[in-house]
Amino acid sequence: MNVALVGLGATGKIVAEYLLGKNVLSMVLCRKNSHHADLDLGVVLNRRDTNIFIETCEHLERKLFENKPDVLIDFSSSHFLRENINLLAHYGVNIVTAVTDYEPAEIEKIKQVALQDKIGIIMAPNITHGVNVLMLLTEIATELMKGYDFQVLEEHHHRKKDSPSGTAKKIAAKIENIMINHLDDREVPIHAVRSGGIVGRHKVLICGEYDQLEISHESFSRIAFAEGAYKAANFINGKKGLYGMDNVFDAERIIKKHTVTDDDHHFIAN
Ligand SMILES: NC(=O)c1ccc[n+]([C@@H]2O[C@H](COP(=O)([O-])OP(=O)(O)OC[C@H]3O[C@@H](n4cnc5c(N)ncnc54)[C@H](OP(=O)(O)O)[C@@H]3O)[C@@H](O)[C@H]2O)c1
Q1: What span, in angstroms and rounded, lies between the C-alpha atoms of 117 and 121?
Q2: Does domain 3-127+224-253 have CATH number 3.40.50.720?
Q3: Which protein residue's CA is at the shortest distance from atom 39 of ligand 1?
Q4: Mean pLDDT, to the nearest integer, of 79-88?
């Protein structure tokens, strides 16, 4: 698998180092006027030369044709796919986008491209394994804890642009969807903190009159994002269509495995 990476910010640099370690990185893209343009990636990562020269997004058509990446991992901003998604689809480059600042219309456009089945796209506003497990556990807890008060708390570094995080909004929406099935249409409050260098914390607080449950996840290192992105790239390589990280982590199969079936009732009763 040949991987292209766009975005060499706080997260992208860690992802680049991780992908170099896996021997899959073949192309790194930056903005038109970026000070990273034409440098060896090793200079930006403060390590020995890599022989991968950072290229701007200008004349991307020619660069994709020459490099032929299988998958592009995007840790840049919504601008990149807004401008280049059609080109990537044309050249059959699959996409893992971890970017979180998309407008609803941009998300719709990305989904439409994926549903044309020319390329495979993973939309991953929450890319770590742990956060995906947190979401799964939260869905189970919401089914089981009818009438409890649910709140979502999230904390991130002060440079993070979106607030609350896309992940927090997604968790709250999942809880609300399940609560509606229980004829409970309360809104789930989200509390966001932006402070210092916090990599990322999400907590679901579930309070009743007499007890409470907390489900929480914390990323200690951005390597957790790199690991998730690499797993996502391996998953999407060679596929077409639209996927999420729940597909990468095979959440549906795990839920089915642990769902109590009629056979289980029979077994328990006997
Ligand atoms: N899904 C997840 O779990 C997860 C985890 C971590 C981060 N993220 C998301 O990933 C994105 C990047 O995060 P970050 O913390 O690394 O941000 P950051 O430090 O601001 O870095 C963003 C990088 O993207 C580059 N960039 C922006 N627009 C570009 C464009 N149109 N073309 C090429 N390069 C472009 C920037 O280049 P310049 O320096 O030239 O501006 C910079 O190198 C954010 O949306 C963030 O929320 C998601």
Answers
A1: 9
A2: yes
A3: 9
A4: 96
Backbone angles phi, psi at 15, to 5 degrees: -65, -40
Catalytic residue among 13, 160, 169, 202: 160
CA–centroid distance, residue 87 to ligand 1 (Å): 20
Kindly report, as residue ranges, where domains of CATH 3.30.360.10 are found in the chain: 129-219
Question: Distance between CA atoms of 97 and 240, rounded to whole angstroms?
Answer: 15
Q: At residue 56, does pLDDT exceed 60?
A: yes
pLDDT score of 95 more than 80? yes
Per-residue pLDDT of 203-235, as tens digits, reads 999 999 999 999 999 999 999 999 999 999 999
Asked if the model's pLDDT at residue 270 lies above 50, the reply is no
- Report the alpha-carbon distance of residue 98 to residue 125 in Å, rounded: 5
- Where does the chain hold its CATH 3.40.50.720 domain(s)? 3-127+224-253
User: Is 156 one of the catalytic residues?
Assistant: yes
The CATH superfamily assigned to 129-219 is Dihydrodipicolinate Reductase; domain 2 (3.30.360.10)
